[in-house]
Amino acid sequence: MTDLNQTLFDRAAQVIPGGVNSPVRAFRAVGGTPRFVQRAQGAYFWDANGQKYIDYIGSWGPMILGHGHPAVLEAVQKAALDGFSFGAPTEREIELAEEILKHVPSMEMVRLVSSGTEAGMSALRLARGATGRQKFIKFEGCYHGHADALLVKAGSGLATFGNPTSAGVPAEVVRDTLVLEYNNIQALEEAFALHGKELACVMIEPIAGNMNFVRASVPFMKRCRELCTAHGALLVFDEVMSGFRVALGSAQSVYAGLIPGFKPDMTVLGKVIGGGMPLAAFGGPREIMRQLAPTGPVYQAGTLSGNPVATACGLATLREIAKPGFWDALSARTQSLVTGLKGAAASAGVPFSADCQGGMFGFFLLPELPQNYAKVMTSDSPKFNKLFHGLLDGGVYIAPALYEAGFVSAAHTEDDIAETVGVAAQVFKTL
Fold this sequence. Notes:
It is built from 13 helices and 18 strands. With 431 residues, the protein is an alpha/beta fold. It has a seven-stranded mixed β-sheet, with helices on both faces. Strands 1-2-3-17 form a four-stranded mixed β-sheet.
């Protein structure tokens, strides 16, 4: 029987670099042939061969309601009939902004854009413009999109400047980027001691989804807030992944419940707020956001920003997840998956740790949850690849990379969770 996924991949490789339009899709880390999706519904998708999979990627997070939710489809279809794009303001942009601000009170104003990368680079530019400073801190293992200044790896010391991760990024572009170890308070304090007066911001994923799933510890987050306040730097939360995914108020609401009075100065959002369409945002207090053009000197623009079909999709999604009982049910389903996987691994004697919040989860083939990127990198990669392919063969689709978080949707049923754990239990026995 012809493998249509392989046929499509071979064809794609002739016209698209690596055969994919985003690198992780190529299965390079795990080996094998990428699955080309033909259609999706609820918690499932079907590949080119007609094989059905339980989907724990959900378009890397946005499909929190599952694929093809009726209310979202209706909103998108109606919006499309009215027009795809205008290049002019619409009322729906206001409605979406109001809906976002209602649930994330640290923001008083928000600017809509089309991608998480665009939102991250714009937030950094605004932080620099608002403070008049150039240097900023990011953390190893946190991904903020592929903008040049943010695409860096750690230097050799605790508070040294970063080096370009990608070819094509000039060294001078990242010379003002300090890359520190995640959850390392000593390194953070040293960086502020050395560069505090020059720092525009600290940009951080509060729950790092590109290290699989690593939380910022409460003491570390508290110290980030204290040092930013003391030195006049802005604390920028990158919640492209965690925003409206781990809680209705996003990850910052989780930390606000643990640290009295806590809030970031700026927030970057994406994924869920677009419901699966290209849409992202960044926002903060009125006095900072008014520094943006056309009211201020910091320039940012986008032809498709606030796209009428994307805003319809995002607005319908946010209204659904704000309904009573939604988060209790989603959190319980995600916790059930994590608990089941832990039990299955323990029964097979496989070192395993896992964590979750809301509809986001992650696991490691390690006996304890890692706290930073270096520890994440010690996870057993060959064993993960066997696990990935075992799950895939059993009809369960997780991220084709060791360092990516997973996502449960409201469409996943108890039977889906039980089936997933059952497949995993069989695969664990072979590791």
